[in-house]
Amino acid sequence: MTQIDSVHSTPRLNTSVSQIRPQDGPSRRRFLSKAAGVAAGGTVLALATIPPALAAAAPAATLDATRASPALKAAVQVLDDALDRAKEARRAFDAADRLPGEWRKLNPKPTDRRAIKRWNRRGQDYYDSVLGPPWHALRAAEKDFRDAQMAVAKIDARDMGELALKACLSMHYDSVRLYYPDNTAVIGFSVAINLVKLTAPVTS
Hints:
Layout: H1 31-36, H2 52-57, H3 70-97, H4 99-106, H5 113-153, H6 160-173, H7 186-199
Helix pairs in contact: 3-5, 4-5, 5-7, 6-7
């Protein structure tokens, strides 16, 4: 994983940043309404977003999102929008990350020791100028996405239907790979907690 320099807020000039990128795939905009068929009158979650085995085994009513709480629907919309912004920020960062390589082609490394020091300073200054803004934007966008994940996770499933919906949301959003992939399965963890709450015997 790329480390951040202690002085500069962007990676150093010789750092590779091509390891991780947000997961590609169909747009997730309005996932809950599109995938669950809210606008279509209550169809099950789209098969593209859930494993075929689960779709075949689960009763249709269990995966019907029309009964999801307004809070859950709103939180998913925020999460979906945050993912779009994170993907856009990553694309901008990847585009900017190619510029230093082009600069090095136009400015070959000299052989003189003093000239090398000047070349390194110029290169780092250029690198910081083109990578700094998109780097900060990427970090901010990914933080917003993680916050939106947490907001969905904090909404307790009221019944087994919402629990199934949250499980599908976990498969859809928790699999997104971020530059800093911390707590990427927070919705999945909340599903486990909600399952215990919904199935644990009530004691007087």
